[in-house]
Amino acid sequence: MRSYENLNLISENREPQRSYYIPYDTLEKAIEGNKYDSKYYKLLNGQWDFAYFERDIDVPDIITKWDKIPVPSNWQMHGYDKPYYTNVNYPYPVDPPYVPDDNPCGVYAVDFNLDTQWINRDTYIVFEGVNSCFYLYVNDKYVGHSQGSHLQSEFNISQFVNEGNNKLTVKVLKWCAGSYLEDQDFFRLSGIFRDVYLLSRDKESARDIEITVTNKNIFVSEKDFVIYDGKNKITSLDNPILWNAEKPHLYTVIVKSCSEYIPFKVGMREIGVSGKGELLINGISVKLKGINRHDTHPNLGHYTPYEHMRAELLKMKELNINCIRTSHYPPTPEFFNLCDELGFYVVDETDIEIHGFTSRNTGYEYDIDNEDWICGQKQWKNAFLERVQRMVERDKNHPCIIMWSMGNESGYGSNHDEMIAWTKNRDKSRLAHYEGSGLINDKCGVDVVSRMYTGIEDMEKFAKNNDMRPFFLCEYSHSMGNGPGDVWDYWQKIYQYPKLIGGCVWEWADHTVEVDGVYKYGGDFGEATHDHNFCCDGLVFADRSFKAGSLEVKAAYQYIKTCIEGNKLTVKNLYDFTNLKEYTLLWKIVCDGDVIKSGNLVCDIEPHETKVYELDFILPESCKLGCYLDISLLGKYEVAMEQHALDVNIQSQENYSAGELQFIDEKESIKIIGTNFLYTFNKHYGNFESIVIDGEEKLAAITKLTVWRAPTDNDRNVKHQWCGQNFNKMFSKVYDCRLEGNRIIVEGSLAGISRSPFLRFNNIFTILSNGEIQVEFEGKVKEDCVYLPRLGFEFQIPKKNKRFKYFGMGPSENYIDMCHHSKIGMYESSAKEEYVPYIVPQEHGNHIKTKIIEIVGLKFSTNKEFEFNVSNYASEMLTKAMHTNELKENENTILRIDYKNSGIGSNSCGPELLEQYRLKEKYISFKFSISKL
Ligand code: GAL
Ligand code: MG
């Protein structure tokens, strides 16, 4: 056994875990809180010497050849070894605590200088994150070792350092026994990936300092301290300003210990659970509008610099997110400083996941009674327990943390009992959470019942059962690729039941690795086992830019709900601690795309309260396309928006002037000749192949009836049924095509290769004398057919006219279940702007509830609604391409006028698409017309 496999040796000489803080040498600096100003803090980040060995046994006593590597970083991001993406499966045999014989090792070295002042005091070194374990040497003397990649390791190196130059050497191993506890679903990356720094300490100064709060008082474990509110000293806390995620007021506590001033940002708040199972923050029932967050950066791997974290937290705020689960390990401690300051409720999760035990035999099974599971093994108890202890002790002073999580997907065993019991005893002010408690029906000490990917119906069952603990979806709405489409429906129920306290969308950002402008995923690095693009499942792209799914979550999480009856607007304030008067509510009456009346309201509405306002507008007698009330809640930016359809009579307008019309019925085609136009209808294939108006060809190829869409990641299960029907290898058959007066009637069917037809249809094309083509589709779908991806006509149009205009749902792409972020209106766009760069190319760019689209001088319109899509990419191309750079533009622009597109859902990991969002009707009729603009 190698020492890093020895469970009795998981660390040596590491300091007992203390709360996170930085000591300062003056009061002023401590109040200011810029750690770089502290004389007692020395950051060692920078370019270090580095030597990489594929096997630790090859590391020589004296290394003569050094490269350079930045610290913090992961060595796989710098050309040593390769990133390895695996989800459940361990990347080596499941033979704990043993790891592969060939264990890569990175040796790091750096020099640092200490002056007399430092030498006269004690010197500590802190590593905020090293994957997977490391051995520390100072001036070539062994100091100690540690494991627990996402936890802090501190060593007292006073007796090893000299005045002047000192040499630090760190030997980092890729694998160790602890790796069995770190089977999180991410790119496996190694090295010193978080800050490394020295602290100069008084020999006798305080080590662990604990601050506890209630909503009345602050308690400090040290005697000598002062409380500040901003820069003002506070002597009494009579009327304290409480902390919550909306108004994260922080006091500063400065502890004086020997010569050190140690600042803490302190938020006063109390966490509780009501008799109804509500989550209470300062007595107020709060819903957790959450996301799961990994440490991830497309170029830096697991290193997420402070400014990067700050920027991403601000993006979360923009999406109305108020809760973060730190999946599945504690982030760097400064992340919590940011959450305290910006206001988030955090579920701090310890660095444990042993998911791969489910697949240690072939198959996938939570056979937790089997003794193989290390969560039930005594010899692993300390390894489990110390991880939760190190997290709690490091992070305990942060007001943002409301729950401690025992890790993720680690089965359930006696070691969990130990962890939960220890945590609850250590900190009674917060809740204890563990997702795996579901495996034993939550018959353990957890304070919340937590599940992942539960469907809406099942969630409702939990809401109604008699376990009065809050129900929390620690993961839901799997946001892989185009999606998620189901978040809105979840929230209608979450608001309905007190006990449903919300949940965390899986997950915040795509965690991929960017190589030459292309985002890579599992398999791109030659991994022996991998999980393809399952790491590309972010609510935001890897660069944190938004997609439609991000905006959909923003809409579901938004803090107002409105409705209109006559002129009466009801506004409900869903904030927990904010009066709506801090925002401006802008309303607009928009008729046929034009604003006919608008106004502003400052709504003085207390949290959770509702008020009714009389809006001053008069609706027109009738309109052409539709009349809507658009609501927008504005702060620094739009924080919420809603649209309500208004009851105005829609007049259909058929006021085309008549013209001359001539039909020439030939063997394979019908020519239709009118004033300034010539259409050619292909009788053999039953559709138009040429539309020439004013001498200009509008079609670049024959029009087709199709059902395929490039499967989204959320279609990954149903796509097997779609492919089973061979929808992607489809034949269109015309049985009969005839001209009757000014109508062309086509009888036909669609069938996948080797399958019987799944759709039989009649298409009637009526050509009016002014050139308008009325398309009427009527079809029957085979009884036992799986729901269709979509159904509609695909027009190929010349690329030259780039811009188009539409009256429909926009501006971002939308689908029947993912449309709450968009509004019906008049918009302009282009095929290029419609493209969405999903990491694995897939269906995108749909618009529902459309009445008109004007493109290439043609107007496609309907009295009802259709869905449309304009793209430079054929569905077949989007289906085939596996990375964005493999996409080749189609020769022509493709316009789809669809009866319907199935919804998006989140079935990449979540429940199946809800019935009501499937295109599953067996009888379909659908009409639209094509005319000259
Ligand atoms: C969950 C797991 C996450 C992630 C997700 C799939 O089961 O907790 O870590 O793997 O599935 O993306
Ligand atoms: Mg997992």
TrEMBL record:
<dbReference type="InterPro" id="IPR006104">
    <property type="entry name" value="Glyco_hydro_2_N"/>
</dbReference>
<dbReference type="Pfam" id="PF02837">
    <property type="entry name" value="Glyco_hydro_2_N"/>
</dbReference>
<keyword id="KW-0378">Hydrolase</keyword>
<dbReference type="InterPro" id="IPR013783">
    <property type="entry name" value="Ig-like_fold"/>
</dbReference>
<dbReference type="InterPro" id="IPR006101">
    <property type="entry name" value="Glyco_hydro_2"/>
</dbReference>
<dbReference type="InterPro" id="IPR014718">
    <property type="entry name" value="GH-type_carb-bd"/>
</dbReference>
<dbReference type="InterPro" id="IPR011013">
    <property type="entry name" value="Gal_mutarotase_sf_dom"/>
</dbReference>
<comment type="similarity">
    <text>Belongs to the glycosyl hydrolase 2 family.</text>
</comment>
<dbReference type="InterPro" id="IPR004199">
    <property type="entry name" value="B-gal_small/dom_5"/>
</dbReference>
<dbReference type="InterPro" id="IPR050347">
    <property type="entry name" value="Bact_Beta-galactosidase"/>
</dbReference>
<dbReference type="InterPro" id="IPR006103">
    <property type="entry name" value="Glyco_hydro_2_cat"/>
</dbReference>
<dbReference type="Pfam" id="PF00703">
    <property type="entry name" value="Glyco_hydro_2"/>
</dbReference>
<dbReference type="Pfam" id="PF02836">
    <property type="entry name" value="Glyco_hydro_2_C"/>
</dbReference>
<dbReference type="InterPro" id="IPR032312">
    <property type="entry name" value="LacZ_4"/>
</dbReference>
<feature type="domain" description="Beta galactosidase small chain/">
    <location>
        <begin position="671"/>
        <end position="931"/>
    </location>
</feature>
<dbReference type="InterPro" id="IPR006102">
    <property type="entry name" value="Ig-like_GH2"/>
</dbReference>
<dbReference type="InterPro" id="IPR008979">
    <property type="entry name" value="Galactose-bd-like_sf"/>
</dbReference>
<dbReference type="Pfam" id="PF02929">
    <property type="entry name" value="Bgal_small_N"/>
</dbReference>
<dbReference type="InterPro" id="IPR023232">
    <property type="entry name" value="Glyco_hydro_2_AS"/>
</dbReference>
<keyword id="KW-0326">Glycosidase</keyword>
<dbReference type="InterPro" id="IPR023230">
    <property type="entry name" value="Glyco_hydro_2_CS"/>
</dbReference>
<protein>
    <recommendedName>
        <fullName>Beta-galactosidase</fullName>
        <ecNumber>3.2.1.23</ecNumber>
    </recommendedName>
</protein>
<dbReference type="InterPro" id="IPR036156">
    <property type="entry name" value="Beta-gal/glucu_dom_sf"/>
</dbReference>
<dbReference type="InterPro" id="IPR017853">
    <property type="entry name" value="GH"/>
</dbReference>
<dbReference type="Pfam" id="PF16353">
    <property type="entry name" value="LacZ_4"/>
</dbReference>
